[in-house]
Amino acid sequence: MPLRRKVRPAGAAARRAALRWWLLSLAATGAAVTAAAALLAVALHLSGSPADSASSSSAGAPYRLSQPREAEELRWEREVAPPQLASPQSRKLDGAAGRSLWLPAPSRRFVPCVAPSPEFESPVASRGYLLVHTNGGLNQMRAGISDMVAVARILNATLIIPELDKKSFWHDRSNFSDVFDEEHFINSLANDVKVEKKLPKELVKAPKSVRYFKSWSGVDYYQDEISPLWDHRQVIRAAKSDSRLTNNYLPTDIQKLRCRAFFHALRFAPPIEALGKLLVERMRSFGPYIALHLRYEKDMLAFSGCTYGLSQTESEELAMIRENTTYWKVKDIDPLEQRSHGYCPLTPKEVGMFLSALRYPSSTPVYIAAGEIYGGESHMVDLQSRFPILMNKEKLASAEELRPFRQYAAQMAALDYIVSVESDVFIPSYSGNMARAVAGHRRFLGHRKTISPDRKALVRLFDKVDSGLLKEGKKLSERILDMHRKRQGSPRKRKGPVSGTKGKDRFRSEEAFYENPLPDCLCQPGSPDSDDSLVSI
């Protein structure tokens, strides 16, 4: 065990930090004051005098954001906090059983393998320009942009910086450079695809060939049906970007290019990266943490028709939203059937039961990666009572720090993405676009622990608990642990289509490329693909 530095902390900072540790220790005991103690600890943890906050900022440093808490306090908590202030539960986590909660599945030495082959040449003179209108939320757009990078390569086109979706449910007005590091994107792809910020002036008003590229297409489609369009137009506009490339059976160099685009080129804009890393640091000051993608926002519940646990008024509001959203095609949904098939996100209450069954103690810090939870605190009571150290970006950052991002859904989602990728454990309550993107990124970075809930099996168990046929405790915990032993992000090849599915349903049933980039972009040292192609990203 490393020796602690003997540093005498400043009086006010020391008193606040000691009080925080004491309150957090109360939270671990399971006493009646658990929630109140932890919430007070959180409040103290984020508080700091204006003078101290001002002095902790670094003027002149690019993208250096102000910190609402004293750096000295954080350093003292990490390095010299008296051992007697650590809670009994925290000491318990030092044992083998406690450590196993955080250990990832064995990575079997898989590492990123994304360098191009010797046959992959730098882009030659392009045939024309490819405009891309992305669609969906942040991670749907990220996947679409990465696919369009590959499509531009297939078509030998110059890619114009994509236009982000401004007409979706969130009405986000962000431009590409607001969300992503534009210069890094262009430069990192220089040997793969020519990327420019804008069309040449003489082509801005020129006729364009607007196309909805066929979903889940391969190289032959783009070479045989899209490439000939260059004979008539200098500009092709892709009206949508989602799922326009097949997951499988593409040339190896194209698959590796998709990975270079998704995991490396699409770095977030510097202000987002800076605040995201700061949120990770603040979250780590509580100890190892779980990032919980709690997909319980209004748009998700309205789209999916999942109303279990909601009031009649709330259910009617969601149905009205679904009815009035023209681009959502399915209107009549049976919520009970949806839930029984595992198509609904777990509710906050169910997530709390799940984490408890996995044997995470109540002192576990949990970061909520989500937008505004539908119904607010009224739906969070059960989860909060089980895990009082419940944090989110609004609690970890000051209002001033969040102000530049708050009105932009994609930028706020990017902050959650960073904290989720860097977490010790990631758990999504629903397998949506963000859950898949984060899970894939964590696989790419070394198969970090990602627990994927078996929602269909879980709701059956939770219904038995609600009906009194099963009690929470050892038996329930053992059943849930057993069914999730092989759902923790261990290396495996990407799953193909579900047997018996046809047409587009066959493609939809496949595991998404970016959710699991193995075998295309991950390999083991010593394998044929690993020669001169290990890239640190």
Question: What does the model show?
Answer:
This protein starts with 10 loop residues before the first helix and ends in a 14-residue tail after the last strand. Mean pLDDT is 83; it is low at 1-19, 21-39, 44-92 and 531-537. The strands form three sheets. The chain has a five-stranded parallel sheet. The chain has a four-stranded parallel sheet with strand order 9-8-7-10. A two-stranded antiparallel sheet has the order 1-11. It is globular, with a radius of gyration of 25 Å. The chain has helices spanning 11-29, 34-46, 50-56, 71-79, 88-92, 96-100, 138-155, 176-179, 182-188, 219-226, 252-265, 270-284, 298-304, 312-324, 335-340, 348-357, 381-386, 393-396, 399-402, 409-421, 433-444, 455-467, 474-483, 503-508, and strands at 111-112, 129-132, 158-160, 195-196, 209-211, 235-238, 290-293, 366-368, 390-391, 425-428, 522-523. The chain is of the alpha/beta class and 537 residues long.
Structural topology:
Elements: H1 11-29, H2 34-46, H3 50-56, H4 71-79, H5 88-92, H6 96-100, E1 111-112, E2 129-132, H7 138-155, E3 158-160, H8 176-179, H9 182-188, E4 195-196, E5 209-211, H10 219-226, E6 235-238, H11 252-265, H12 270-284, E7 290-293, H13 298-304, H14 312-324, H15 335-340, H16 348-357, E8 366-368, H17 381-386, E9 390-391, H18 393-396, H19 399-402, H20 409-421, E10 425-428, H21 433-444, H22 455-467, H23 474-483, H24 503-508, E11 522-523
Parallel strand pairs: 2-3, 2-6, 3-4, 5-6, 7-8, 7-10, 8-9
Antiparallel strand pairs: 1-11
Helix pairs in contact: 1-2, 1-4, 7-11, 12-20, 13-14
